[in-house]
Specification:
Elements (H helix, E strand, L loop, with lengths): L3 H9 L5 E3 L6 E5 L5 E6 L6 E5 L2 H10 L3 E3 L8 E5 L6 H16 L1
Antiparallel strand pairs: 1-2, 2-3, 3-4, 4-6, 5-6
Length: about 110
């Protein structure tokens, strides 16, 4: 799951998810109907970079385990991670993290 289109299709498959560009053309922001962000993708990044909200304890565990996961770039470092999609994480793991981010925001 490295291609922007593939990741975006999965993100937009979440109920009531929508795409917005509140920070300009370089950052795709994915929101829920309550207008809360749950994913951000840096347009044109190669490899693809996605930022996702997460439980703070899980976020730290992921950062410790994977070299391609770091504290959210330009986001609250406690609640957001940025993931570089190089293939270190499986498609299923990426989808699970997207789903986790979405669920945190819609609660």
């Amino acid at each position: 799951m490295k291609a922007h289109k593939q990741v975006e299709e999965f993100i937009l498959s979440m109920p009531n998810a929508r795409l917005d560009y509140p920070f300009g053309e370089e950052t795709a922001v994915y929101k829920t109907t309550n207008d809360k962000m749950f994913a951000l993708i840096t347009e044109g990044s190669d490899p693809l970079r996605i930022s996702l909200k997460g439980d703070p304890q899980l976020n730290q565990l992921l950062r410790d385990k994977y070299e391609t996961i770091s504290a959210g770039w330009h986001l609250n470092k406690k609640h957001w991670n940025t993931i570089i999609l190089t293939g270190q994480l499986s498609d299923q793991e990426v989808q699970d993290l997207i789903r986790h981010s979405y669920e945190l925001v819609v609660r």
